[in-house]
Amino acid sequence: MKLLFLSESDRAEIWRPVLQRLAPELEFVQWPDVPDPAAIDFAAVWKYPPGELKRYPNLKLVSSLGAGIDHIVGDPDFPAHVPFVRLTDPTLTAGMIEYALYGVLRHHRQMRAYAAYQREGRWKPLPAPATASCRVGVAGTGEIGGAIAQAVKGLGFDVAGWSRTGRGPEGLRMYAGDSGWIPFLGRCDVLICVLPLTAATRGLLNARAFAAMPKGSAVINIARGGHVVDADLVAALDSGHLDYALLDVTSPEPLPPGHAFWAHEKVELTPHIASLTNAETAAPQIVDNIRSYLAGRPLRNLVDRTQGY
Length: 309
Ligand code: NDP
Prior knowledge:
- The chain is α/β, with parallel strands linked by helices.
- It has 10 helices and 12 strands.
- Strand 9, helix 7 and strand 10 (217-221) form a beta-alpha-beta unit.
- The longest helix is centred in the first third of the chain and has 19 residues, at 90-108.
- The two termini are 28 Å apart.
- The structure holds NADPH dihydro-nicotinamide-adenine-dinucleotide phosphate.
Protein backbone atom coordinates (compact mmCIF):
# COMPACT_ATOMS: atom_id res chain seq x y z
CA MET A 1 0.00 0.00 0.00
CA LYS A 2 1.34 3.43 -0.94
CA LEU A 3 0.71 6.72 0.85
CA LEU A 4 1.37 9.86 -1.17
CA PHE A 5 2.60 12.88 0.82
CA LEU A 6 1.32 15.75 -1.31
CA SER A 7 2.29 19.19 -0.08
CA GLU A 8 4.18 22.18 -1.39
CA SER A 9 5.50 22.81 2.12
CA ASP A 10 8.79 21.39 3.38
CA ARG A 11 7.15 19.32 6.13
CA ALA A 12 7.68 15.89 4.55
CA GLU A 13 10.89 15.36 6.51
CA ILE A 14 8.99 15.86 9.77
CA TRP A 15 6.04 13.62 8.84
CA ARG A 16 7.87 10.80 7.07
CA PRO A 17 9.60 9.24 10.14
CA VAL A 18 6.46 9.55 12.25
CA LEU A 19 4.18 7.95 9.65
CA GLN A 20 6.73 5.24 8.86
CA ARG A 21 7.07 4.34 12.54
CA LEU A 22 3.30 4.20 13.05
CA ALA A 23 2.50 2.38 9.83
CA PRO A 24 5.48 0.42 8.47
CA GLU A 25 3.08 -1.35 6.10
CA LEU A 26 2.61 1.91 4.16
CA GLU A 27 5.20 2.98 1.60
CA PHE A 28 5.76 6.75 1.85
CA VAL A 29 5.85 8.43 -1.58
CA GLN A 30 6.89 12.07 -1.59
CA TRP A 31 5.34 14.32 -4.22
CA PRO A 32 6.33 15.39 -6.85
CA ASP A 33 8.49 12.29 -7.34
CA VAL A 34 5.70 9.83 -8.21
CA PRO A 35 6.85 7.33 -10.85
CA ASP A 36 3.54 5.42 -10.97
CA PRO A 37 0.46 7.51 -10.08
CA ALA A 38 -1.79 4.44 -10.51
CA ALA A 39 -0.03 2.72 -7.60
CA ILE A 40 -1.06 5.39 -5.06
CA ASP A 41 -3.72 4.18 -2.59
CA PHE A 42 -3.91 6.99 -0.04
CA ALA A 43 -2.90 10.64 0.10
CA ALA A 44 -2.03 12.99 2.96
CA VAL A 45 -2.36 16.50 1.55
CA TRP A 46 -1.77 20.15 2.35
CA LYS A 47 -1.37 23.10 0.01
CA TYR A 48 -0.98 21.54 -3.44
CA PRO A 49 -1.61 22.59 -7.05
CA PRO A 50 -5.38 22.35 -7.72
CA GLY A 51 -6.21 19.44 -9.99
CA GLU A 52 -3.24 17.36 -8.85
CA LEU A 53 -5.42 14.69 -7.20
CA LYS A 54 -7.01 13.85 -10.57
CA ARG A 55 -3.75 12.15 -11.54
CA TYR A 56 -4.20 9.22 -9.13
CA PRO A 57 -6.89 6.89 -10.52
CA ASN A 58 -6.80 4.37 -7.64
CA LEU A 59 -6.93 6.78 -4.74
CA LYS A 60 -9.09 5.41 -1.92
CA LEU A 61 -8.89 8.01 0.83
CA VAL A 62 -7.52 11.55 1.21
CA SER A 63 -6.46 12.92 4.61
CA SER A 64 -5.83 16.58 5.25
CA LEU A 65 -2.62 17.43 7.10
CA GLY A 66 -4.36 20.29 8.88
CA ALA A 67 -7.66 21.41 10.40
CA GLY A 68 -8.55 24.15 7.89
CA ILE A 69 -9.57 22.49 4.64
CA ASP A 70 -11.08 25.35 2.63
CA HIS A 71 -8.30 25.21 0.02
CA ILE A 72 -8.90 21.48 -0.50
CA VAL A 73 -12.71 21.62 -0.54
CA GLY A 74 -12.30 24.50 -3.00
CA ASP A 75 -10.36 22.36 -5.48
CA PRO A 76 -12.90 21.85 -8.29
CA ASP A 77 -10.99 18.80 -9.50
CA PHE A 78 -11.02 16.95 -6.18
CA PRO A 79 -12.17 13.41 -7.13
CA ALA A 80 -15.80 13.40 -5.96
CA HIS A 81 -15.95 9.66 -5.23
CA VAL A 82 -12.96 9.64 -2.85
CA PRO A 83 -13.70 10.13 0.88
CA PHE A 84 -11.87 13.05 2.48
CA VAL A 85 -11.04 13.31 6.20
CA ARG A 86 -9.75 16.34 8.01
CA LEU A 87 -7.46 16.42 11.00
CA THR A 88 -8.00 17.15 14.65
CA ASP A 89 -4.94 17.44 16.85
CA PRO A 90 -4.80 18.04 20.61
CA THR A 91 -1.54 19.95 20.34
CA LEU A 92 -2.99 22.24 17.67
CA THR A 93 -6.11 22.81 19.77
CA ALA A 94 -3.99 23.69 22.81
CA GLY A 95 -2.17 26.37 20.81
CA MET A 96 -5.45 27.82 19.58
CA ILE A 97 -6.72 28.02 23.16
CA GLU A 98 -3.59 29.88 24.27
CA TYR A 99 -3.87 32.39 21.47
CA ALA A 100 -7.56 33.05 22.08
CA LEU A 101 -6.98 33.47 25.82
CA TYR A 102 -4.23 35.97 25.11
CA GLY A 103 -6.62 38.08 23.05
CA VAL A 104 -9.49 37.88 25.55
CA LEU A 105 -7.24 38.81 28.48
CA ARG A 106 -5.44 41.58 26.62
CA HIS A 107 -8.75 43.23 25.83
CA HIS A 108 -10.45 42.51 29.14
CA ARG A 109 -7.49 43.72 31.26
CA GLN A 110 -7.09 46.84 29.06
CA MET A 111 -3.44 46.04 28.39
CA ARG A 112 -3.31 48.10 25.21
CA ALA A 113 -4.31 51.19 27.19
CA TYR A 114 -1.62 50.46 29.79
CA ALA A 115 0.98 49.97 27.06
CA ALA A 116 0.07 53.41 25.68
CA TYR A 117 0.26 54.97 29.16
CA GLN A 118 3.68 53.47 29.67
CA ARG A 119 4.92 54.97 26.41
CA GLU A 120 3.58 58.34 27.59
CA GLY A 121 5.19 57.96 31.04
CA ARG A 122 1.76 57.98 32.73
CA TRP A 123 0.90 56.07 35.94
CA LYS A 124 -2.85 55.76 35.56
CA PRO A 125 -4.97 52.94 37.00
CA LEU A 126 -8.26 52.28 35.19
CA PRO A 127 -11.44 50.88 36.78
CA ALA A 128 -11.05 47.11 36.97
CA PRO A 129 -13.64 45.23 34.89
CA ALA A 130 -15.41 42.21 36.44
CA THR A 131 -14.66 38.92 34.67
CA ALA A 132 -18.19 37.56 35.02
CA SER A 133 -19.64 40.63 33.32
CA CYS A 134 -17.40 40.31 30.24
CA ARG A 135 -19.40 38.43 27.59
CA VAL A 136 -17.34 36.34 25.21
CA GLY A 137 -18.82 34.69 22.12
CA VAL A 138 -17.26 31.86 20.16
CA ALA A 139 -18.44 31.57 16.55
CA GLY A 140 -17.86 27.95 15.53
CA THR A 141 -18.00 25.58 18.49
CA GLY A 142 -16.50 22.51 16.84
CA GLU A 143 -13.29 20.74 17.77
CA ILE A 144 -11.28 23.92 18.36
CA GLY A 145 -13.96 26.51 19.14
CA GLY A 146 -15.64 24.20 21.63
CA ALA A 147 -12.37 23.75 23.53
CA ILE A 148 -11.73 27.50 23.47
CA ALA A 149 -15.21 28.22 24.82
CA GLN A 150 -14.65 25.81 27.71
CA ALA A 151 -11.24 27.30 28.53
CA VAL A 152 -12.55 30.89 28.52
CA LYS A 153 -15.54 29.85 30.59
CA GLY A 154 -13.18 28.16 33.03
CA LEU A 155 -11.66 31.57 33.79
CA GLY A 156 -15.07 32.90 34.81
CA PHE A 157 -16.11 34.80 31.67
CA ASP A 158 -19.74 34.79 30.52
CA VAL A 159 -19.39 32.62 27.40
CA ALA A 160 -21.83 31.66 24.65
CA GLY A 161 -21.36 29.88 21.34
CA TRP A 162 -22.83 30.07 17.86
CA SER A 163 -22.91 27.30 15.29
CA ARG A 164 -24.92 26.18 12.28
CA THR A 165 -26.85 23.48 14.13
CA GLY A 166 -26.55 24.73 17.71
CA ARG A 167 -24.13 21.92 18.62
CA GLY A 168 -21.57 22.89 21.24
CA PRO A 169 -19.92 21.69 24.42
CA GLU A 170 -22.29 20.55 27.13
CA GLY A 171 -23.51 23.34 29.36
CA LEU A 172 -22.54 26.15 26.95
CA ARG A 173 -25.29 28.61 26.05
CA MET A 174 -25.71 28.22 22.30
CA TYR A 175 -27.17 30.27 19.46
CA ALA A 176 -27.90 28.55 16.16
CA GLY A 177 -27.99 29.36 12.47
CA ASP A 178 -28.89 32.55 10.65
CA SER A 179 -31.60 33.56 13.11
CA GLY A 180 -29.19 33.26 16.05
CA TRP A 181 -26.35 35.28 14.52
CA ILE A 182 -27.38 38.85 15.34
CA PRO A 183 -28.71 38.03 18.86
CA PHE A 184 -25.42 36.18 19.51
CA LEU A 185 -23.33 39.14 18.37
CA GLY A 186 -25.39 41.47 20.58
CA ARG A 187 -23.81 39.83 23.62
CA CYS A 188 -20.22 39.62 22.35
CA ASP A 189 -17.92 42.00 24.23
CA VAL A 190 -15.30 39.77 22.66
CA LEU A 191 -16.02 37.73 19.53
CA ILE A 192 -13.72 34.82 18.72
CA CYS A 193 -14.12 33.50 15.18
CA VAL A 194 -13.22 29.80 14.78
CA LEU A 195 -15.45 28.98 11.83
CA PRO A 196 -14.39 27.00 8.78
CA LEU A 197 -14.28 29.13 5.64
CA THR A 198 -17.19 28.02 3.45
CA ALA A 199 -19.61 29.63 1.02
CA ALA A 200 -21.90 30.30 4.00
CA THR A 201 -19.26 31.88 6.27
CA ARG A 202 -17.17 33.94 3.82
CA GLY A 203 -17.50 37.66 4.61
CA LEU A 204 -19.62 37.01 7.69
CA LEU A 205 -17.61 39.48 9.79
CA ASN A 206 -18.93 42.54 7.99
CA ALA A 207 -20.48 45.96 8.75
CA ARG A 208 -23.81 44.37 9.74
CA ALA A 209 -22.10 42.02 12.18
CA PHE A 210 -19.89 44.70 13.73
CA ALA A 211 -22.86 47.05 14.16
CA ALA A 212 -24.67 44.31 16.10
CA MET A 213 -21.80 44.02 18.60
CA PRO A 214 -21.70 46.21 21.73
CA LYS A 215 -19.72 49.47 21.55
CA GLY A 216 -16.12 49.01 22.65
CA SER A 217 -16.03 45.31 21.82
CA ALA A 218 -13.20 43.26 20.34
CA VAL A 219 -12.83 40.80 17.46
CA ILE A 220 -10.38 37.91 17.49
CA ASN A 221 -10.08 36.07 14.18
CA ILE A 222 -8.16 32.81 14.26
CA ALA A 223 -10.13 31.12 11.49
CA ARG A 224 -9.49 32.45 7.97
CA GLY A 225 -8.95 35.94 6.55
CA GLY A 226 -11.88 35.42 4.17
CA HIS A 227 -14.32 35.65 7.07
CA VAL A 228 -13.59 39.37 7.45
CA VAL A 229 -14.59 42.23 5.17
CA ASP A 230 -11.44 44.26 5.80
CA ALA A 231 -12.83 47.69 4.91
CA ASP A 232 -15.81 47.12 7.22
CA LEU A 233 -13.53 46.15 10.10
CA VAL A 234 -11.35 49.22 9.61
CA ALA A 235 -14.45 51.44 9.48
CA ALA A 236 -15.84 49.91 12.69
CA LEU A 237 -12.49 50.43 14.46
CA ASP A 238 -12.09 53.98 13.12
CA SER A 239 -15.57 55.00 14.19
CA GLY A 240 -14.78 53.86 17.74
CA HIS A 241 -17.51 51.24 17.69
CA LEU A 242 -14.97 48.40 17.92
CA ASP A 243 -11.97 48.80 20.19
CA TYR A 244 -9.58 46.02 19.21
CA ALA A 245 -8.97 43.42 16.52
CA LEU A 246 -6.55 40.55 16.99
CA LEU A 247 -6.00 38.91 13.62
CA ASP A 248 -3.94 35.78 13.08
CA VAL A 249 -5.25 35.30 9.56
CA THR A 250 -5.74 37.65 6.62
CA SER A 251 -6.68 37.51 2.98
CA PRO A 252 -4.31 37.33 1.21
CA GLU A 253 -1.44 36.00 3.32
CA PRO A 254 0.87 37.77 3.63
CA LEU A 255 -0.99 41.09 3.48
CA PRO A 256 0.26 43.42 0.76
CA PRO A 257 2.45 46.36 1.86
CA GLY A 258 0.34 49.40 2.73
CA HIS A 259 -2.75 47.40 3.75
CA ALA A 260 -4.64 49.29 6.47
CA PHE A 261 -4.17 46.50 9.03
CA TRP A 262 -0.37 46.80 9.12
CA ALA A 263 -0.20 50.14 10.89
CA HIS A 264 -3.65 50.40 12.47
CA GLU A 265 -3.29 51.25 16.16
CA LYS A 266 -6.26 49.06 17.11
CA VAL A 267 -5.17 46.03 15.07
CA GLU A 268 -2.76 43.42 16.35
CA LEU A 269 -1.56 41.15 13.59
CA THR A 270 0.28 37.82 13.64
CA PRO A 271 1.40 35.77 10.60
CA HIS A 272 -0.95 32.75 10.91
CA ILE A 273 0.89 31.31 13.90
CA ALA A 274 -1.98 30.77 16.34
CA SER A 275 -1.18 27.09 16.15
CA LEU A 276 0.43 24.41 14.03
CA THR A 277 -0.40 20.77 13.45
CA ASN A 278 2.01 18.55 15.33
CA ALA A 279 2.99 15.43 13.39
CA GLU A 280 3.53 13.30 16.54
CA THR A 281 0.05 13.95 17.93
CA ALA A 282 -1.81 14.19 14.60
CA ALA A 283 -0.34 11.32 12.58
CA PRO A 284 -2.07 8.52 14.55
CA GLN A 285 -5.41 9.80 13.27
CA ILE A 286 -4.27 9.57 9.63
CA VAL A 287 -3.08 6.00 10.17
CA ASP A 288 -6.24 5.03 12.13
CA ASN A 289 -8.42 6.32 9.32
CA ILE A 290 -6.47 4.37 6.70
CA ARG A 291 -6.81 1.21 8.79
CA SER A 292 -10.52 1.91 9.36
CA TYR A 293 -10.99 2.33 5.62
CA LEU A 294 -9.28 -0.99 4.94
CA ALA A 295 -11.35 -2.74 7.64
CA GLY A 296 -14.62 -1.17 6.46
CA ARG A 297 -15.06 0.76 9.73
CA PRO A 298 -16.50 4.32 9.88
CA LEU A 299 -14.00 7.11 9.23
CA ARG A 300 -13.25 9.79 11.81
CA ASN A 301 -13.77 13.47 10.86
CA LEU A 302 -15.17 12.72 7.44
CA VAL A 303 -15.69 16.00 5.57
CA ASP A 304 -19.20 16.77 4.32
CA ARG A 305 -18.30 18.33 1.01
CA THR A 306 -21.80 19.76 0.47
CA GLN A 307 -21.38 21.84 3.67
CA GLY A 308 -17.67 22.48 3.00
CA TYR A 309 -16.40 21.27 6.41
P1 NDP B 1 -14.91 21.90 13.13
O1 NDP B 1 -15.37 21.38 11.82
O2 NDP B 1 -14.67 20.95 14.26
O3 NDP B 1 -16.00 22.95 13.66
C1 NDP B 1 -16.64 23.84 12.82
C2 NDP B 1 -17.64 24.66 13.61
O4 NDP B 1 -18.14 25.71 12.78
C3 NDP B 1 -18.85 23.85 14.07
O5 NDP B 1 -19.29 24.36 15.31
C4 NDP B 1 -19.87 24.15 12.99
O6 NDP B 1 -21.23 24.05 13.39
C5 NDP B 1 -19.55 25.62 12.74
N1 NDP B 1 -20.06 26.07 11.43
C6 NDP B 1 -19.70 25.64 10.19
N2 NDP B 1 -20.40 26.29 9.24
C7 NDP B 1 -21.21 27.17 9.91
C8 NDP B 1 -22.19 28.11 9.49
N3 NDP B 1 -22.47 28.29 8.20
N4 NDP B 1 -22.82 28.83 10.42
C9 NDP B 1 -22.54 28.63 11.75
N5 NDP B 1 -21.65 27.74 12.21
C10 NDP B 1 -20.99 27.01 11.30
O7 NDP B 1 -13.63 22.79 12.83
P2 NDP B 1 -12.34 23.04 13.77
O8 NDP B 1 -12.81 23.53 15.09
O9 NDP B 1 -11.43 21.87 13.75
O10 NDP B 1 -11.59 24.22 12.95
C11 NDP B 1 -12.21 25.47 12.73
C12 NDP B 1 -11.34 26.33 11.82
O11 NDP B 1 -10.22 26.85 12.53
C13 NDP B 1 -10.70 25.61 10.64
O12 NDP B 1 -11.64 25.45 9.58
C14 NDP B 1 -9.55 26.53 10.28
O13 NDP B 1 -9.95 27.44 9.28
C15 NDP B 1 -9.26 27.28 11.57
N6 NDP B 1 -7.90 26.99 12.05
C16 NDP B 1 -6.98 28.01 12.14
C17 NDP B 1 -5.70 27.79 12.62
C18 NDP B 1 -4.71 28.91 12.80
O14 NDP B 1 -3.54 28.67 13.06
N7 NDP B 1 -5.12 30.17 12.74
C19 NDP B 1 -5.24 26.43 13.00
C20 NDP B 1 -6.32 25.44 12.89
C21 NDP B 1 -7.57 25.71 12.42
P3 NDP B 1 -22.03 22.66 13.54
O15 NDP B 1 -21.29 21.82 14.55
O16 NDP B 1 -23.36 23.12 14.06
O17 NDP B 1 -22.07 22.00 12.20
